[in-house]
């Protein structure tokens, strides 16, 4: 298990953009499971949407990518950050609201050097809320 202190030593993101609270499972170069606890105190809920708070889909994908970044760095990749190259096959199946705990399950499709392709799902209560494939590049 990887706690928030170690996550912060791996990722350059900080509040309000650090979107991973803990890693539960990690198999280097293969897969990772991370979680985010969603609270009403998230700054994006002030405007998305007043009276009907829903986590923005783009932030769900960003959180999934941060989990994938942890996997890449824990697999021995050297660099200081990760940038998206492409996002494909995104499907939003169910809104994420305050009080939910998101479980991100990300798998490596393939990698070559600093370029990695992942598939991932976000789940709440074992139900898929979001799925995507994405490619990212580790930067210096």
Quick structural gist:
The chain is an alpha+beta fold and 140 residues long.
For the record, give the distance between the C-alpha atoms at the N and C termini, rounded to a whole number. Answer: 26 Å
Q: Given the structure, what is the number of helices? A: 2
Indicate the multimeric state: single chain
Secondary-structure element order, as H and E? Answer: HEEHEEEE
Strand order of the largest sheet: 1-2-4-5-6-3
Largest sheet: 6 strands, antiparallel
**Pairing-aware structural class of the strands and helices?**
alpha+beta
CATH superfamily caption: Hotdog Thioesterase
CATH class: Alpha Beta
Number of domains: 1
Net shape: globular
Rg is: 14 Å
Average of the residue pLDDT scores: 95
Approximately how much beta-strand content do the residues carry?
A: 35-45%
CATH architecture name: Roll
Total E-strand runs: 6
Report on this model:
This protein has helices spanning 4-10, 57-74; strands at residues 22-27, 31-37, 81-92, 101-112, 115-124, 127-139. By secondary structure, it is of the alpha+beta class. The radius of gyration is 14 Å and the shape is globular. The model has no long low-confidence stretch (mean pLDDT 95).
List keywords for this structure.
140 residues; alpha+beta; Thiol Ester Dehydrase, Chain A; 6-stranded antiparallel sheet; 2 helices; 43% strand; globular
């Amino acid at each position: 298990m990887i706690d928030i202190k170690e996550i912060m030593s791996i990722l350059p993101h900080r509040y309000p953009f650090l979107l991973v609270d803990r890693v539960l499972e990690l198999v280097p170069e293969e897969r990772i499971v991370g979680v985010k606890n969603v609270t009403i105190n998230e700054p994006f809920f002030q405007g998305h949407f007043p009276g009907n708070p829903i986590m923005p889909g783009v932030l769900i994908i960003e959180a999934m990518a941060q989990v994938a970044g942890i996997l890449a760095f824990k697999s021995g990749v050297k660099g200081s950050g990760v940038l998206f190259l492409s996002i494909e096959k995104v499907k939003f199946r169910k809104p994420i609201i305050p009080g939910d705990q998101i479980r991100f399950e990300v798998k490596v499709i393939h990698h070559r050097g600093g370029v990695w392709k992942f598939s991932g799902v976000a789940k709440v209560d074992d139900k898929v809320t979001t799925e995507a494939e994405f490619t990212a590049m580790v930067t210096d």
